[in-house]
Each structure stands twice: as structure tokens, then as C-alpha cells.
Specification:
- The complex is a heterodimer.
- In chain A, a hairpin with a 5-residue loop joins β2 and β3.
- Chain A is of the alpha+beta class.
- Chain A is globular and about 45 Å long.
- Chain A starts with 7 loop residues before the first helix and ends with a helix.
- Chain A has five helices and three strands; from the N terminus they run αβββαααα.
- Chain B has a seven-stranded mixed beta sheet, with helices on both faces. Chain B has a four-stranded antiparallel beta sheet with strand order 11-12-15-14, covered by helices on one side. A two-stranded parallel sheet of chain B has the order 1-13.
- The two termini of chain B are 36 Å apart.
- The longest helix of chain B is centred in the first third of the chain and has 21 residues.
- Chain B is 35% helix and 14% strand.
- Chain B is built from 15 helices and 15 strands.
- By secondary structure, chain B is α/β, with parallel strands linked by helices.
- Classes of the chains: A alpha+beta, B alpha/beta.
- At the A-B interface, loops of A face α13 of B.
């Protein structure tokens, strides 16, 4: 059921995305895009001395699912160590969303994870 | 308008999905029972190969296959069945032209296309993406320059500098109706201009043949392509029309059985037209299905189909323009056309000779515009994929994305749009359902 994807909390994250905006002094950055639907995300990360994620911000445009998942993921990874954040999987993102994402929209849900993984790989 | 209740009874998809509001016919049309029956009848009763067979069943299959060619000829008013080549779809037909006629276009020549083309009429003319050495000499055009007719903010072609653009052009590759904007181009006028500089014209009629009368002689098209599946026929069958004098001199596209007269160890002699361009066993069932689709459309009458959809175009534009936050691409109104047909019943089919002039149908007026019932739209603050998903929940099937027209979307600064499109089985009620759905979406995202 596709309407089940549009829960209040997902719409809330879409309308008021957390950690949205550029991050000055970011040590890590990645840009990902899905040209098929025009979704684009930029993730910015900053680590503290303990190698934990001290700050995370993102910018971009996309559908409800991609923006909400980016917003939720940005909250989730703050404070995580590099190793912990590298271990995140598709299932973790789906768990954050907490709704059944229909197969046609799976890529929207995982675009933010792709961005984080790429950012971690780029110094 | 057409009696859509009666028409819907001919389409089993509406029996299986009684609540379906199908607004995605630009992607593919639904199929009437008559088309499905024609395909099944072939497989069940005379499902053998065409040509060469000496037994009665093969003769029957050949007659049905070649009979469909004659139906296509009549449908687009070609002079001869030698000018009708069956392909898988419009895309394959364009590739056929690109790989035969296109090879004669080289460095110093130009190909003129438009910013509103479907990828199928852009990519065959583009240089390949990599490596850069190949980019300098793309195989299909030998380095020809690709030029673009601009699209205005209103979704019309900017033809103000057409004379300048046509200099050195060997081929104009242009759509008759945009699959995003619904805008109809005056290809007849553009063909005249192209011919005056010695260029040929290829008309992408994938969106026009399903919805309006198309006459290749009246347009004076050199090449015209279309897909069966957008006009009630099965998938996997389409056609290329080309003038006989052009086809005669072109090399074959694909080689193999059925396209030769004689094969020796030294070489082969190509078959006559049109079979020279039909290598291998063709899509026999699909072709027979296409013939049945043409029969169905002609029984209703293509002018009646066009008038019905003109009424839906007017209604749709009027309804959608009243919703604040919704923007529809393309011209905001239909050009002046004849008033809609009166009454709710279908008019008797016109005779073959009483083909209405295109001018009377509101296409081909000065500036070349017309507009079909395709509505690509955006809703402020809502991504097209969300629009598509939520409308789906309400039984309304539309498409979301770039609709194989990335250049057009980029031009309008949009990554994607939602697109609702109509056909002969759609009524004003379907548009009302769409509007209801849009208002619900706006409520959710408010």
C-alpha cells in the first residue's frame, strides 16, 4: 500500500528536514544523484578528536522518501564512530523510516546511505 | 464526445480493474478485445510462418500479415505497401533510418532536431558517450553537427530562425506531437521548408498516429515512424514509412533470412521492397494485432478520436488551471478549433475519401500548433514520484519522471514531472478523479 509510506513522521521530516543546510569546515563531503527522478543529495560530515561524527548536514532535493530518510539518517549518525557509521546498511535505513517502502521507491530510501558511505570514503 | 462507457466495454483491462482510472496512454495504450482476439486467433488457428510456405495455413498467415501492411498503408495514406516496413517500435524504425540513410550524412552536414523530442529521436543522432576518439566521428553520422530547434516557455517550437537553422541540414528529425507537452507541431510546413533546402524530414509520429488522422502524402514526410502499442496494438510491433524512391537506394539494416532473393558463396541479392528491410521471422501475431487495432480505430474514426480528446484537453486544462500550486507544461489553452461534436454517441465513420483536412481539426494553423490531451504537471512542494504514488493509491494511474525527455525537462529546470494522458476510453470523470486526487495530495502536504 503506497499510502502507508506517507506517515505523519515521514511527512514531518520531509517538510522540516533536520540538519538541513551546508556545513562549514566539513572534512567529508559527497554528492549523489539519481538522474532517473532527479533526486540529488549532498552530505557533509565533521569528526571530533575521538573520531566520532560531531556534525552532519545535508542539502539537496528529492521526494518524501529520499528527504525523510536523509533527515532521519543524519540524526542517527551524529555521535557514531567511523566504524559504526560504516556498518550501516539498507535495512538500518528502512528501519529508521519504519514503513514499508514499495520496490519502485527503494532507491529513494537508500540514496542518503549512499551519500554517507561515499562521504566516509572521501577524505 | 465519444461514448466512453461503450468503449470501455471493449477493453478487458477495465473488467479486471473496474475502478481503474487509466491516464498513462502516452506510455502505452490498453488493448481492446478485438486486438487480443486477433493475436490469439493467429496462434490458435493458423500459427505458422509467413512467406514461402506452400500449404494453405501458411498462405492464410501470409495473407493476414501482408493484409495488415495494407491496413497500415491506408491508415497513413502511403502510396504503396512497398513503403511500409514493420519494426519492433518507433525506436527501432528511427535506428533503421540512422543506420542506413544516416550513414550518408557526414562531416560538414547537419541534422536538425528539437528540444521536445523523445530520447528515441535524439539518442540515435547523438555521438556515442565514450571514448573521446569516437566522439569525433560517430558511426551513424560521420561527424555531422546536431542542431536544435528551441522550445519556448509556452511549449511551442521557436521557428523564427528556421531558415538559418536549416543551412547545411540533410535531415530534420522532429516529433509531430510531444509526449510531454502534448504540443502538435506543424510538420507539413516544416517539411516544405526542409525540402526547399534539399533536406529530408523524419517525423516521429509515435504520439500522433494514435490520436489524429495522419496522412504521409499530405505532410510530404520522407520518413515517418510509429509504435503499435500506443495505438491499441500489441507491444513489439511498429512501422517505418519511407518514400519508395528513398528506400530503393538504401542498404539493408539487418541481414538474414527473408530479406534476400538469392544467396551464393560470393554474396547475396537483396529482396524487393519492403522485405529487404525485414530480416528474419517477423512479429506475425503482433502485426496482425496491429491490423486489428487499425480496424478498431477506423470504425470509430480518427477525426472522432481527435475531437473527443480535444474536448478532454480543453476540460483538463481548464480544471487543472483552477488549482493553485499546480502548473501544467505547454500551452495553457488549445488553439482555436472546430466546436466539439454534439451528443454522446459516436458519429458514423467517415469514408476513406472524406478524410477531414487537418486545418479543420485545429492542427496546422499558423505557428503550427495544436495540443493533445497530455498534461505534464507539477504541484508546488510535492515531488512527482510522491504524486504518482499517492494517486495510485486512489486508483489513478499516471506517470512520474522525465518521460524520456531529459533535455526538455532540463530546459524547464525540472528534474521530473507528473504526467496524465488521455485516450479514447477516457472521460471527463477521469479528469475529475485526477483533480480530486491532486487536492487530496495538497492537503497531505499542506
Amino acid at each position: 500500500m503506497s499510502l502507508a509510506m506517507y506517515q505523519q513522521n515521514i511527512l514531518d521530516h520531509y517538510k522540516y528536514p533536520r540538519n538541513f543546510g551546508p556545513l562549514l569546515g566539513a572534512q567529508h563531503h559527497a554528492h549523489v544523484a539519481n538522474p532517473l527522478c532527479g533526486d540529488e543529495l549532498d552530505f557533509f560530515l565533521k569528526f571530533d578528536e575521538q573520531e566520532k561524527i560531531a556534525a552532519v548536514k545535508f542539502t539537496g532535493q528529492g521526494c518524501t522518501i529520499s528527504i525523510a530518510s536523509a533527515s532521519m539518517l543524519s540524526e542517527k549518525i551524529k555521535g557514531l564512530s567511523r566504524a559504526e557509521s560504516e556498518k550501516l546498511t539498507k535495512d538500518d535505513v528502512l528501519k529508521l523510516l519504519g514503513v514499508e517502502v514499495n520496490p519502485a521507491r527503494l532507491r529513494c530510501a537508500t540514496l542518503s546511505l549512499e551519500a554517507v558511505q561515499q562521504a566516509l570514503g572521501h577524505h | 464526445m465519444l461514448s466512453t462507457e461503450t468503449i470501455k466495454n471493449d477493453f478487458p483491462m477495465f473488467k479486471a480493474n473496474p475502478k481503474l482510472v487509466y491516464l498513462d496512454s502516452t506510455a502505452t495504450s490498453l488493448k481492446p478485445q478485438a486486438v487480443i482476439d486477433a493475436e490469439r486467433e493467429y496462434y490458435e488457428q493458423y500459427g505458422v510462418n509467413v512467406h514461402r510456405g506452400v500449404y494453405a495455413l501458411s498462405v492464410r498467415a501470409t495473407d493476414a500479415y501482408e493484409g495488415a501492411r495494407e491496413k497500415v498503408r491506408k491508415f497513413i495514406n502511403a502510396k504503396s505497401t512497398k513503403e511500409i516496413i514493420f519494426t519492433r517500435n518507433a525506436t527501432e524504425a528511427i535506428n533503421l533510418v540512422a543506420n542506413t540513410f544516416g550513414k550518408s550524412i557526414g562531416r560538414g552536414d547537419a541534422i536538425l532536431t528539437t528540444e521536445m523530442e523523445h530520447h528515441s529521436n535524439i539518442v540515435p543522432w547523438l555521438p556515442p558517450p565514450t571514448p573521446s576518439a569516437l566522439r569525433a566521428a560517430p558511426p551513424n553520422q560521420g561527424g555531422a553537427e546536431l542542431r536544435w530547434i528551441r522550445v519556448t516557455d509556452n511549449g511551442e517550437l521557436d521557428l523564427s530562425n528556421l531558415g538559418e537553422l536549416l543551412k547545411g541540414v540533410k535531415l530534420v528529425a522532429i516529433t509531430q506531437m510531444s509526449n510531454v507537452l502534448g504540443m502538435v507541431n506543424d510538420v507539413k510546413m516544416i517539411a516544405k521548408k526542409a525540402h526547399s533546402v534539399g533536406a529530408k524530414i523524419l517525423v516521429d509520429a509515435a504520439q500522433s498516429t494514435p490520436h489524429m488522422p495522419v496522412d504521409v502524402q499530405d505532410l510530404d514526410a520522407d520518413f515517418l515512424v510509429f509504435s503499435g502499442h500506443k495505438m491499441l496494438a500489441p507491444t513489439g510491433i511498429g512501422a517505418l514509412y519511407a518514400k519508395q524512391e528513398i528506400l530503393q537506394d538504401l542498404p539493408p539494416f539487418l541481414r538474414g533470412g527473408d530479406m534476400i532473393l538469392e544467396v551464393t558463396k560470393e554474396g547475396a541479392q537483396w529482396n524487393e521492397l519492403p522485405w529487404k528491410f525485414e530480416a528474419g521471422t517477423p512479429n506475425i501475431a503482433g502485426t496482425i494485432g496491429l491490423g486489428a487495432a487499425i480496424d478498431y480505430l477506423q470504425k470509430i474514426g480518427m477525426d472522432n478520436v481527435w475531437q473527443h480528446e480535444q474536448e478532454l484537453t480543453r476540460y483538463g486544462l481548464e480544471q487543472l488551471s483552477q488549482i493553485s500550486g499546480v502548473k501544467v507544461l505547454g500551452a495553457p489553452t488549445t488553439p482555436a478549433a472546430t466546436p466539439p461534436l454534439q451528443g454522446g454517441v459516436t458519429s458514423p465513420p467517415p469514408t476513406a475519401d472524406a478524410r477531414p483536412s487537418l486545418g479543420k481539426l485545429g492542427i496546422g494553423r499558423a505557428g503550427g500548433a495544436g495540443r493533445g490531451a497530455i498534461f505534464a504537471f507539477t504541484i508546488d512542494g510535492v515531488h512527482p514520484h510522491d504524486i504518482g504514488s499517492i494517486l495510485d493509491e486512489q486508483g489513478v494511474a499516471i506517470r512520474a519522471g522525465h518521460h524520456c525527455a531529459m533535455i526538455l525537462h532540463r530546459k524547464f529546470g525540472l528534474p521530473a514531472t507528473a504526467r496524465a494522458s488521455c485516450y479514447l476510453y477516457n472521460s471527463k470523470k477521469d479528469i475529475d478523479q485526477l483533480v480530486k486526487g491532486i487536492i487530496k495530495i495538497q492537503g497531505m502536504f499542506a
